[in-house]
Specification:
Chain lengths: ~325, ~525
């Protein structure tokens, strides 16, 4: 009963949050100067033409009426239609989501594959000036080098040396896996650098902390092989903070790695929403923000509910 | 040395094969001839009658036909009309091609031409190009392949106006039945038709099997890849991912120098960059005639040409240089006087206006890389005469809102005009009431309206030249909207892969006028 009430409160809070986001994004985008009709007509803007376009797209209706129509439509799962293409926004998101998800997963994979071993080495060899310096240097570069700078450099060298990375442009993974990976390699690499720095530093700090724990000393004193100590004790215990930052990193990327998508012409969600913002394609921007908000709120709410299930004290104590 | 085991040999073979496949990246066999175009921006709207976005026009020309075309020396040429006659100063008849069809197979008839022009002229649609054609009194079908246009007064640029993509011929039968909506798709009689459109990604155009020009287009497919970033387009050319690409960047020839097999074609145009000046709002310092005059005297067009375009441009005039403007257009004091003298005059005017150290803003949207570059040269010019200019790089939507509105909110803004096929078309934008978009910042000058009436009505000759000369004087004296320098187009292509053809000079932004003649070499 208490748990049910707790879940109900959490869900209610989630819905209120989403409503707040809906109101904020609706108002915010309409406060931006210029509208879609002005953009299309450009310096051939005639009042009659603007009225014609606004009427055609329903933009002439009172703001509250437009908001209510949009909100109720979204609540029914219909994200509306793009002003630019007149096509379903939901269909467009579905078409683009795989590219964004794949980019996020690949970047995170690269970050983990590179960051964790380097972090472990750096953490275990902290007394070695070489590894200490290498770890810190890589961490600093990764954290400070903007992805568009790295991406531009990679793009130049890859095309100048004909390394075949962007040969045919973006292709879906299931259409042609090799061509897909060729197209995704450079953007994933440019995005992963920050993740490598993040994971390397977190792993290094976590490993350093774990190696000072008494159970490690015990394992060493017991004569356990170093490899086994690292695998069974160090990595397992050091992994929790690494998992946390990795999930934060992937969440950040799933929000749409706009810069990488624009630079490498990856047709993902980030590029779609970014272009829509410039085009004042209101429905797309609103849908993009709402989608990100729904994912974020859902994950948080699910986490809260899981905690309450695992720890009954949370359900009874929390507000 | 240990012997290589079978397992190691299989592993080595797999690695070699993967490496080969990676670098070879062989495309699947394709029986169709395809050429790819790297385009900097997406099409914003598919209705050619309403689009004010020049980069969308380049695509409209591939799908739609217009009644007229334009030669490489900016003269009227046959389009959908295979011939025409000016029966009287106010009557034109056109004979349409008998074999013209829309890509859905339906024959194009005079009803489509009449309906399209009437749609353009419909005040409810409010198409700006309807105003260019306001002299049209009546459009009548004469049989299935004849059209007669009756004018209320002579209109010398009529044939040139009918060559612009904003006057494209739409499938009116389908439009009136409701099976076609020009704001949702494109259905034309041009060389190509839309096979697929992936927003922000690509357009796949296939050859129109019903195109009236036999044997054309010579390729089966034109793929337009949307690549907003110059670096990406250059990489695409280098790798052969695109066969040609269009650029706005004046540094294009330098950037592509040394890239193997890439040639750059600089297409001449009568187009020019311009400076919009806010002369109506109280908040604008340029409401003061003296300050506008000072600003116009300070502009150093030669420096713009050298610094920004490396000499591949030229100062422009109200009547574009390509149309051989009268002397008065080229020799106004704001152009002809030595720069030192102009700067002195300008400084005096600034002092008289009490505007020393006056802060002024220049809107230069980064949507075109050239706008901020022009603004930087202007900034230096205006500082020289004692003003404090600040460049504002704002997004397109904000730029339009602040400049092309009833209540404007700007001082100076950089933009551009197409020069089209007749000087009367571009000159018309200055006429009072010609374009509502400029009503927020342009002071109407009645005399210019009278002058423009003559330019539009008179046939080519000394009298028309005289009217143009007077028009130039008025525009330069008003300094409310000023031509700056010529705007060339840049097209880079893989000379080892394709055999393109480009027009010598292009005024309607039909950059790929000869796309139907492109062929692949390999």
């Amino acid at each position: 009963m208490r748990l049910t009430a707790y879940i109900a409160r959490r869900l209610g809070g989630a819905l209120l949050t989403l409503l707040g986001v809906a109101v904020l994004i609706y108002i915010a985008i309409r406060l931006l100067p210029g509208g879609y009709a002005e953009l299309v007509l450009g310096n051939q803007l005639e009042p009659e033409a603007r009225d014609y376009l606004n009427q055609k797209y329903g933009l002439h209706k009172p703001p509250l009426e437009q908001f209510w129509a949009w909100l109720t439509s979204v609540a029914r799962g219909n994200l509306g239609v793009s002003l630019v293409t007149q096509r379903s926004i939901g269909d467009e998101f579905l078409r683009r989501a795989p590219a964004t998800i794949e980019l996020a997963l690949l970047s995170t994979l690269i970050a983990l594959v590179v960051g964790i071993p380097l972090g472990v080495l750096s953490g275990l060899s902290d007394s070695s000036p070489f590894w200490r310096t290498t770890g810190r240097l890589l961490g600093a570069i990764g954290a400070s080098l903007p992805e568009f700078v790295l991406g531009t450099i990679l793009l130049y060298f890859a095309s100048a040396w004909s390394m075949g990375f962007t040969q045919r442009g973006f292709v879906g993974f299931f259409d042609d896996p090799l061509a897909n990976l060729q197209a995704m390699a450079l953007p994933a690499l440019s995005l992963s650098v920050f993740g490598i720095a993040l994971i390397l530093r977190t792993t290094r700090d976590s490993v350093k902390r774990v190696t000072t724990e008494p159970y490690i000393t015990t394992a060493v004193a017991r004569g356990d092989p170093p490899g086994r100590i690292i695998r069974q004790h160090v990595l397992r215990n050091a992994s929790i903070p690494v998992l946390t930052v990795s999930s934060t990193f992937i969440g950040y990327l799933l929000g749409g790695a706009v810069v990488a998508e624009v630079l490498f012409s990856i047709p993902g969600v980030g590029l779609y929403v970014f272009n829509a913002l410039g085009n004042r394609d209101y429905g797309v921007v609103q849908a993009g923000v709402m989608l990100a908000a729904v994912i974020f709120v859902m994950i948080n709410t699910l986490g809260d509910v899981l905690y309450a299930v695992l720890d009954p004290r949370i359900g009874s104590r929390a507000g | 040395m240990p012997k290589m085991t079978a397992r190691m040999r299989r592993f080595a073979a797999a690695v070699a094969l993967a490496a080969f496949a990676w670098t070879a990246g062989a495309a699947p066999a394709d029986a169709q001839t395809t050429i790819s175009w790297g385009k900097p921006s997406e099409v914003l709207s598919t209705d050619p009658h309403l689009s004010g976005d020049g980069t969308s026009w380049t695509v409209f020309y591939l799908i739609y036909d217009q009644l007229m075309g334009m030669t490489d020396d900016l003269k009227p040429a046959p389009g959908l009309a295979e011939s025409w006659q000016q029966v009287s100063p106010t009557t034109y008849t056109f004979k349409l091609r008998q074999n013209a069809k829309f890509s859905n197979g339906r024959p194009l008839t005079s009803a489509d031409v009449v309906g399209s022009l009437k749609r353009l002229l419909d005040p409810k649609l409010g198409a700006s190009w309807g105003r260019q054609l306001r002299a049209i009194k009546e459009v009548v079908a004469e049989g299935d392949h004849g059209v007669r246009i009756e004018l209320s007064e002579p209109l010398t640029p009529l044939l040139s106006i009918l060559a612009v993509s904003t006057t494209s011929i739409l499938p009116m039968k389908e439009l009136s039945e409701g099976s076609f909506d020009p704001t949702k798709g494109m259905l034309g009689s041009g060389p190509f038709m839309v096979k697929e459109h992936l927003q922000d990604e690509s357009w796949t155009l296939e050859k129109n099997p019903n195109y009236w020009r036999e044997g054309h287009p010579k390729i089966d497919r034109l793929v337009i890849r949307i690549m907003p970033d110059d670096t990406t387009r250059i990489a695409g050319l280098r790798e052969g991912r695109v066969d040609f690409a269009t650029f706005e960047n004046p540094d294009t020839p330098r950037l592509l120098k040394g890239v193997p097999n890439v040639d750059v074609y600089i297409q001449q145009t009568p187009n020019y960059f311009r400076l919009d000046v806010s002369a109506l709002q109280e908040s604008s310092p340029f409401k003061d005639d003296r300050l506008r005059k000072a600003m116009s005297y300070a502009i150093d067009r030669d420096r713009m040409v050298q610094i920004i375009f490396g000499g591949e441009s030229k100062p422009e005039y109200l009547v574009p240089a390509a149309f051989n403007p009268p002397a008065e257009c080229r020799e106004h004091p704001s152009y002809k006087l030595p720069r030192a003298e102009r700067v002195k005059l300008a400084k005096d005017l600034v002092k008289q206006a009490g505007a020393e150290n006056q802060k002024v803003s220049i809107i230069a949207s980064p949507v075109l890389v050239t706008y901020p570059l022009i603004a930087q040269v202007l900034q230096r010019d205006l500082r020289e005469i004692g003003l404090q200019p600040e460049i504002q790089q704002v997004p397109v939507a904000e730029w339009y809102k602040r400049v092309f509105a009833k209540e404007t909110d700007f001082h100076l803004a950089v933009s551009w005009f197409a020069g089209y096929g007749d000087p009367a078309i571009v000159m018309n934008w200055w006429a009072p009431g010609a374009n509502a978009a400029y009503a927020g910042f342009m002071k109407p000058v009645e005399e210019y309206g009278d002058v423009m009436a003559k330019v539009r009505n008179l046939p080519d000759g000394p009298e028309r030249q005289q009217a143009m000369a007077r028009g130039c004087q008025i525009v330069y004296d008003q300094a409310n909207l000023l031509p700056l320098v010529n705007k060339p187009d840049y097209i880079a292509y893989r000379s080892d892969l394709i055999q393109p053809k480009f027009g010598k000079i292009e005024g309607n932004f039909d950059v790929l006028k000869y796309a139907e003649e492109f062929t692949r070499k390999r």
